[in-house]
Design a protein that fits this description.
β11, α14 (363-371) and β12 form a beta-alpha-beta unit. This protein is globular. The chain has helices at residues 15-27, 32-42, 46-51, 54-57, 60-64, 113-130, 150-164, 183-197, 217-234, 252-263, 287-297, 304-310, 339-347, 363-371, 379-382, 385-399, 405-429, 436-454; strands at residues 69-78, 84-95, 101-107, 136-141, 173-176, 244-247, 267-273, 276-279, 313-316, 327-329, 352-354, 375-377. It contains 18 helices and 12 strands. Bound molecules: NADPH dihydro-nicotinamide-adenine-dinucleotide phosphate (NDP) and (2Z)-2-iminopentanedioic acid (2IT).
Amino acid sequence: MSTQHGANPKHQFHPYAARVLDELRARVHWEKEYLQAVAEVFSTIRAVLERNPHYEGERILERLVEPERVIAFRVAWTDDRGRVQVNRGWRVQFNSALGPYKGGLRFHSSVTLSSLKFLGFEQTFKNALTGLQMGSGKGGADLSTRGLSRAEIMRFSQSFMTELYRHIGPDIDVPAGDIGVGGAEIGYLFGWYKRLTGHWEGALTGKGRHWGGSLLRPEATGYGLVYFAEEMLRTRGQGLEGKRVAVSGFGNVAWGAVKKATDLGATVVTLSGPDGYIYDPDGVKGEKIDYMLAMRASGRDRVEDYAERFGVEFHPGARPWEVPVDVALPCAIQNELSLEDAKRLVANGCTCVAEGANMPTEPDAIEYLQEQGVLFSPGKASNAGGVAVSGLEMLQNRAGAFDSEIEVDKRLRRIMATIHNDCVEAARRYGVPGDYVAGANIAAFTKVADAMLDQGVV
Ligand code: NDP
Ligand code: 2IT
């Protein structure tokens, strides 16, 4: 088996995994992001497959790469000028071995079935790592909400939910936010779900704090990411205090990461958008963090506004990975950190890369970072704090309870520390100590595979 699928060649594919990947590739060769995600997992589970030959007999891998259900639908809506717009919507209900389908909705022009399948596949492992009862799913539409009016976003969300509502529910499938879907969109989606079904129930997470949402859900992904990065640094006797940090993106995840990293004494010196990145040597802190929220809410597709407002450097069309930092936290979108970027980070002294986004680091960049001894964590482990607090929101809704911020934060910290420990332990047990990618995949895969075996052929 070669490395042609874009996986880390350090890991050898088990012949069974190689065969399933080749079959998948032949069947959906155009689904590049999906194949990238599957290859990454399959390249790291050789030892597990060797020790568990019955997985092959039960065709666990063939079942794992096939979503249980894919729902595709038309989203027709009218814009503010009365023109009819047509978009495509999907919900990929990936795997329900561990609980109801659970995962975000992405509204972005780049959304395709391939990107939702990659995200749903990753979600399977991420949700397993949280230790909560959550299966996996992902959905969305090929529309960027940037530049749309609130009324347009509401009409679009309502049209989207008019189709989706029949497929979701608190014990069936519980969507949440992702790129382009934040608190406002969840509000519109929830309101329409309630109107269509006549039920006030926890069919979505990321709800407002006064109507069933968990405290700290908006912050959870970024906070969890920083807690995870702290755990990684601690394995080398370090912490975030005094570290220079590069963050990409300026959305929900980036915001939470900046807040918590700054709280813990780090200086976050970059943010980025599709237009380029800003360099703020004094650190993104205080009112500048609040301004991130204003920037995101403004619907403008740019971080240059930050540079203009605070008089810092703006680098058009560039990525933040060229700035000398100790820690890099990619928090924007998939495949936003290339091999070239990784080389620059290492040359400038970066020792830790923790993914906030899903699959932001390209496979050859991961391989390089690991070879260079950089601490590297995959998003499915380090960004699991968001879905973990979604899981806590589901529990609160079921119990009709409301946990305090301190309580949620304590649980989030504990979950991130446990995920970190599980990754480290699995990597050690399977002979690849320090490899968080393998550790996360192995720890999660065995949980899901064993649950699938227990539940028979479904
Ligand atoms: P947001 O929509 O809040 O933010 C995404 C950010 O990335 C925006 O600032 C966006 O700008 C920017 N962006 C988009 N494309 C690029 C690009 N090519 N270069 C630089 N910046 C870009 O989404 P989230 O913060 O929720 O999601 C960010 C990432 O984190 C995604 O990979 C998501 O899957 C992942 N994630 C999210 C979780 C959550 O709870 N929300 C949980 C776990 C992971 P613009 O909008 O102008 O395009
Ligand atoms: O990628 C992710 O984990 C999310 N977008 C959060 C999903 C959720 O259900 O909270």
